[in-house]
Design goal:
Strand content: 5-15%
Oligomer: single chain
Structural class: mainly alpha
Helix content: over 70%
Shape: elongated
Length: about 240
């Protein structure tokens, strides 16, 4: 009678162990490759995000110079109405307040990279909780400012529209310095009657509130810049570890 072959359990166990180790190593390699790809993708996103934030800082710092002049001019108009005369007889500054009272542009914080990170799940996977908190606070603050500030800006735009009944805009050519030489430039001007403007309560009161609105715009822009610069610092620290 022929006996059935005996199983070599040791050899079978060894083969199963080798197969298991092979599968385990393959899974480890796949996981390592996936983690590396995620890390590389995260670094690319962080660099894009950094570029967005730095562009906002550079733009806003240049932009604020002109906005500060507008704010001071609008305040000058409001203060002149309160004083009953154009303070310091500075008619040009008064004109600038009339021209730029409605000029309160959006804060141009680019958020396409941030939106992509959120939509792809990359933002939730960020290693640094400090970075996630800083970036989330930044964009939440920006959204809140944009949402709450819009109706204030609408009021200044209504005031600007009303002013058109009382002022006559015109332009004149005037030599101005471009830093190295004098060049001819077109300058915006307006004709106005101070007594007529001061005698209109809606305009007088409108400039009182417009001055506050311009002050708030400057304050909120500077606050957003501060938060942005803090976020950039944390982001740069995180990138230096990669």
């Amino acid at each position: 009678m022929i006996k059935p072959p005996q199983l070599d359990y040791r050899a079978l166990t060894a083969e199963l162990f080798i197969v298991f180790i092979g599968l385990f190593l393959a899974l480890q390699v796949d996981e390592w490759r996936e983690n590396r790809e995620l890390d590389e993708s995260e670094v690319r996103y962080l660099h894009r995000l950094k570029d967005d934030l730095q562009a906002f800082v550079e733009f806003s710092e240049r932009f604020l110079v002109g906005r500060e002049k507008n704010r001071a001019a609008v305040q000058h108009v409001s203060d002149s109405f309160a004083a009953g005369q154009i303070i310091g007889k500075d008619h040009r500054k008064f004109e600038l307040g009339l021209i730029y009272v409605g000029h309160l542009p959006d804060l141009r914080l680019q958020k396409s990279s941030y939106d992509e990170m959120v939509a792809s799940g990359m933002f939730a996977r960020l290693r640094s909780e400090e970075l996630k908190t800083a970036i989330a606070e930044l964009y939440a603050t920006h959204e809140q400012i944009q949402r709450n500030f819009s109706w204030w800006r609408n009021s200044t735009n209504e005031l600007f529209s009303q002013l058109q009944q009382y002022v006559g805009p015109y332009s004149e050519e005037k030599p101005v310095s471009d830093g190295a030489r004098m060049v001819e430039a077109t300058v915006r001007r307006v004709e106005f009657d101070f007594e007529e403007l001061q005698g209109e309560p809606s305009i007088r009161n409108g400039f009182f509130w417009a001055a506050d609105t311009h002050n708030d715009w400057i304050r909120m822009t500077r606050e957003l810049l501060r938060i942005t610069e803090e976020a950039i610092s944390i982001l740069e620290s995180e990138l230096s570890k990669r």
